[in-house]
Design goal:
Four copies of one chain form a homotetramer.
Chain A (H helix, E strand, L loop, with lengths): L6 H18 L5 H8 L6 H4 L3 H21 L8 H18 L1 H12 L5 H10 L1 H13 L7 H21 L4 H16 L1
Helix pairs in contact in A: 1-2, 1-4, 1-6, 4-5, 4-6, 4-7, 5-8, 5-9, 5-10, 9-10
The structure holds a DNA duplex.
DNA sequence: CATGAATGAGCGTTCATTCAT
DNA sequence: GATGAATGAACGCTCATTCAT
């Protein structure tokens, strides 16, 4: 089958795109991404039909990686607070460990290049976390507020905490806990 | 060129930029913005030296308008909770009344075209709110968390509430209060 | 109204396109055409929205010029043979005097970039000649053959004669007459 | 590489090229031709060094096939008119039976990718017809016109007749004869 | 100052051809 | 020999900015 499409090259392109996007934004030329990945200009297009496709796949890739990191070791048993604290801690740890990926994800998340299909798939990767939170919601202080508002508040708190942890890495752990406590006061 | 002739034209361009950005994103051509403003292509550049300048000024403009709306009728006396509830209500009302402006502001906020100088100036417009919140912070449940984290959480909650109100306008008032209650539980 | 669109520039581009197409074919880069016309790359697109538009307008332009040359001094009175001989002579003279234009027209004529609308408009420019020929047809040796076949034969004879005249310019006049005689034997 | 292994593959590529060119023009990608032929992208280049080579060989192939069809059963004896009518009829029949091949040949014929060498070889395939016509020429009405003009006129008439037959297949036979009569009036 | 044509760098994508498998 | 991924030059077109009118 001749030279098979190389999974390595594919991920090299995705990784390069991530790095380049962080420094140059989503308008980074595909040529720059290709060069950063160490492949020829045209090769990028044998792995991704269009730039938009590349961006969408990168979005999903990062979203899935983030979800996997957050849900690492997660089992849907035990006390909700403890469970969620574990997830929260994983999540924050990933965010602090991969600031570039988080930045790229943020840029992609607000771009209108990302299709609703990609967004839905990204959502799905977070499903276990969402289920856990639904349990929290229905028993907690916000039980009378709509789920959508509840989720939005939770997400917002998470993003804010990540931002702050990144800003003051030295006390990241402390901020992680403080963020969680604040959140739990709100929703618990 | 500090004060070009027609202040009307200037604001027409800013308003046009806002409208166009909402539908086309930040990459909207200056030619389109100019046409939407009813002026010639080149005229835009006698009012704003570069497109980046235009975006920065629009950012500040919107930020200031938003701050003014939120702080309408604000006087730094009285009980913090009541004061802040008033501000919060104003703020949410503005957001719901001007979804396009909020959308444009959101796009601008994450763009790397916006300089830190603009961001600082935008910050400044919110100073009275910040001062009020600092009082809340030093006496409230998050008094041991850093101000930055505190502010980030508050902002995040506000954005989340706005989003949700926009999504379900019929019960906007209810969500406005629910968001505030949740926030206050966290920070009060 | 600022710099008005310059009719000169427009025709410079059309003329340049004609020249370039003759040497490089229809796939000649727009950049080359622009340079040949002495304008910037982008300027070409303020006069012609797309390359296809440029090609279509060039086609029409040449077709009209050719028709005008052939029909110069034509009045629909007098004996058909004499009339048509005059047209034929004009036509051949134009073809020999403007071999590049004829070559460009030939290339454009077989291209599928040229729309049926352009072809129809080109046809229209030849209408007076067509009418004259219809008279010839209905009274001549081919009166029982369909008009379409008649016209095709006439056109083919014209093209063949032009080709041969171009090949042997020294005796162009003689070939012009020989071609006409042959044609007339066929259709007269 | 003069005679690569599979003659089948070679003709599959040529046939595919013909089909693809008819629908997509001469700028059809080699990749598309290869796929249509059921071979890999690169395989095409083991049978034809360059795309230009492929086009030239296709041109010759078609030209030869056309000549063979026209000359089927031809023997250089008997009355010229009868002989040529036979050839003409064969020729027209082939054209009507293989409109795609004729279309491809037409596209190739006007392309500047086709070398003069290929054109000369194509010419050669028609030699017997040409010899017959030379006899007609030297005794016919055009005996005083140069051979080149004579041949051009004959070819033009043939093309025109083919075009018209293809347009109105129902009466193809009639048009075939009408075309011949017209031609013979001109040259006979 | 207003206008809009002029400019040319820059971009996403294509495709003939090469070459590793 | 067959395959199809790799290559990179090339192209049509866009658009921020300049400048003649």
């Amino acid at each position: 089958m001749a030279r098979p499409k190389s999974e390595d090259k594919r991920s090299a392109i995705l990784a390069a795109a991530m790095r380049v996007i962080v420094t140059q934004g989503l308008s980074a030329p595909t040529a720059v991404i290709a060069k950063e990945a160490g492949v020829a200009n045209g090769t990028l297009f044998t792995y991704f039909e269009t730039k938009t496709d590349l961006l969408n796949e990168l979005y999903l890739d990062l979203k899935r990686e983030m979800a996997a990191a957050a849900l690492k070791g997660f089992s849907p048993e035990g006390e909700s607070r403890k469970q969620y604290f574990q997830v929260w801690t994983n999540w924050m740890a990933w965010a602090v460990a991969h600031p570039k990926k988080r930045r790229a994800l943020a840029l992609l998340g607000v771009s209108d290049e990302i299709t609703s299909k990609s967004r839905a798939a990204g959502h799905k990767a977070m499903a276990p976390m969402r289920e856990l939170l639904e349990r929290v919601h229905s028993n907690g202080a916000m039980r009378d507020a709509p789920t959508g508002l509840f989720m939005a508040m939770m997400n917002a708190a998470a993003e804010a905490t990540m931002d702050y942890m990144a800003l003051d890495k030295a006390h990241a752990d402390k901020h992680c806990r403080a963020g969680f406590e604040a959140l739990w006061r709100m929703i618990g």
